[in-house]
TrEMBL record:
SUPFAM superfamilies linked to this entry: Anticodon-binding domain of a subclass of class I aminoacyl-tRNA synthetases, Nucleotidylyl transferase
Location of the Methionyl/Leucyl tRNA synthetase domain: 46-410
Protein's UniProt name: Methionine--tRNA ligase, mitochondrial
An annotated GO cellular component: mitochondrion
Mitochondrion listed as a keyword: yes
Residue intervals passing through the bilayer: none
InterPro entries membership: Anticodon_Met, Met-tRNA_synth, Met-tRNA_synth_2, Methionyl/Leucyl_tRNA_Synth, MetRS_core, Rossmann-like_a/b/a_fold, tRNAsynth_Ia_anticodon-bd
Keywords: Aminoacyl-tRNA synthetase, ATP-binding, Ligase, Mitochondrion, Nucleotide-binding, Protein biosynthesis, Transit peptide
Gene3D superfamilies, alphabetized: 2.170.220.10, HUPs, Isoleucyl-tRNA Synthetase, Domain 1
Any one GO molecular function term: ATP binding
Pfam families named in the record: Anticodon_3, tRNA-synt_1g
EC primary class: ligase
Species, as recorded: Macaca mulatta (Rhesus macaque)
An example Gene Ontology biological process: methionyl-tRNA aminoacylation
Amino acid sequence: MLGKSVLRLLGRTGASRLSLLEDFGPRYYSSGSLSARDDARDARAYFTTPIFYVNAAPHIGHLYSALLADALSRHRRLRGPSTAATRFSTGTDEHGLKIQQAAATAGLAPTELCDRVSKHFQQLFQEAGISCTDFIRTTEARHRVAVQHFWGVLKSRGLLYKGVYEGWYCASDECFLPEAKVTRQLGPLGDSFPVSLESGHPVSWTKEENYIFRLSQFREPLQRWLRGNPQAITPEPFHHVVLQWLDEELPDLSVSRRSSHLHWGIPVPGDDSQTIYVWLDALVNYLTVIGYPNAEFKSWWPATSHIIGKDILKFHAIYWPAFLLGAGMSPPQRIYVHSHWTVCGQKMSKSLGNVVDPRTCLNRYTVDGFRYFLLRQGVPNWDCDYYDEKVVKLLNSELADALGGLLNRCTAKRINPSETYPAFCTTCFPSEPGLVGPSVRAQAEDYALVSSVATLPKQVADHYDNFQIYKALEAVSSCVRQTNGFVQRHAPWKLNWESPVDAPWLGTVLHVALECLRVFGTLLQPVTPSLADKLLSRLGVSASERNLGELYFLPRFYGHPCPFEGRRLGPETGLLFPRLDPSRTWLVKAHRT
Ligand code: MSP
C-alpha cells in the first residue's frame, strides 16, 4: 500500500522537477543577458540554511553556511523580475539534550540560554548582510504546531510504532550510532571512554522505550529519488556518498526520547511521557517557515534548496526525505553541501581555543571584504584552512589592487576629465575581428576580452547552479585581470583627448573598460553588496539597471544603442576597497615550520 503510493509520488515528483528545472535554466543573449523568456519566469525559489544550535556563540563556519545561502538567494533574486518569488530562511535550533545540558552547565534556564545565543546569531547575520526573509526559532509556538501536525501525519500513515531502542547516543551530534561507528579514546588519566568515530564526541549507552519511525521502508524509494534526480545533491561526490550509504542496511529510527531524560523539546502529541527527537523537530522548521500545515506552504514546497554542511548530510539526504515521503510529500528539490573551515589545519573547537569570531573578522576586514574572502576561498568539496595573512593577501590583490585599481584608472579625472561614460567607436573596434584599416585599433586580445566578459554572466550562473560560488568569483577575478591587461595594453594615459586621431579610440578604451566594470559590479552584488553598490553608483548605473536581465554587455559592439553612452558618472566616493595593512597583528597566523 505504502510502497505503491510512494512510487506514484516519486513518479509525479520526477516529472514536476524536470519541468521546473527547465524553467530555471538560465538563457542568455550573446551579449550576456538573460533572455526575455527567462525574465518572464515567475517560478518560486526557497533557500534555507541549517538552523544553528544555540549551545555556543557563532563561529566563521556558521557564517559561511549562511553566506552561501545568502549568495545563492541574492543571485536568484537578480535573475528574476519578482523578488516576491524568493524566500530565504535561517534560524536557531533550540531544543534537545545538547541544549538542555549546555544550559545546565552554564547554570541557566534553557530559555535564557536560547534567547541569549539566538540573539547573537540574529545580530551577526544582520551585520553580515544576510538577507534572510525569515528567522525561525524552534521554541516558537508556530513551530510546535507544525511539528506536532507532522508527527500526526506520520502516525496516521502507520509509520510510527512503539519499541525498545538500545544503543549508543551522541548528545553533541544529537544522533544514534551503531557499534561500528563508535571507538574508544584515552582520557587524561589513562582511562578510556567511548566516542563517535566521525566527530570524536563522547557517546553514551541508552536503552528506552521510544516511538520508532519505519525508516527501513524508505531505502528503495530514496534510491529511486536520487537516481532519478542526479542533481538532487550537489556537488556530485556527496550524491554518490548518500547512494553508497543506501546500499547498506537502513534500520528504523527512534524518533522520541523519554521526557524524564529529555524534557527540553516538543512533547509527542497525546503522550507527554515522550519528547520528539530533536532532528525531526529541527527538520520540520523548513515547513514551519512557509506556513505548514496551512495550505499556503504548497506554493513553496518542494521548490526548495537546502544549504548544509557535510556533517549533517545524512539527516538531510536520508532522514528528511524519508519523513517527507512518509508524510506524502516530495523531497526537497536541491541539497547543496559544503565542507568545513579549519584553523591552521585543526578543527575549530572551544576546547582547543581556536574558534575564530566572525564579528571580529567583519570589523577587521569590512563586511564585504570578509564575505568575499569566505566565498572566494571556500570550496564546497574540500575543507579550507583559515589564517589571517590569507585574507589580507587575497583582499589586497583582488579587491583593492585589481578591481579598485581598474575603477580608478577609468574614472580618474586626469584620464576621464568629463567624468562621463565615453562613446564607443565602431570603426576603432569593429564587431568583426581581423578587419584592417587606418582607424581600426582593436587587437586579437581585445576580442578575446569581449568574448570572455560576454559569456561571464552565463558562466557565473552555471557555477551558482552547481554550487561552486568560488568558481564564479574566480571567473570574475580572471576577467578583471584581463580587463586590466586591456587597459595596460592601450595605455589611455598616453592618449590625448585633443587629438582627433586619439580621441575616438581613447573613448572606446574607457567605454569597454567601464562596460566590463558594470558587468563585474552587477555579478558581484550577491557576494559584496555594498562594494558592488559603490562601484555601480560610481558608474552611474541606476538601481533598476542592476538586474541580470538588464545586463546587455557592450551593446554598441553588437550594433545596439547603449543607454550609458554619454551619461555622467556618479559622484566620486573614495577608494573602492582600501588596502589592508599586512603588518598588523592578526587573530590567526599561519603555522610555519
Ligand atoms: N542544528 C543542526 C542543524 C539542524 S538543520 C535542520 C546543526 N547545527 S550546527 O550549529 O552545529 O551547524 C550548523 C551549520 O554550520 C552546519 O551546516 C554545519 O556544517 C556548519 N558548520 C559547523 N562548523 C563548521 C565549520 N567549521 N565550517 C563550515 N561550516 C560549519 O548541525
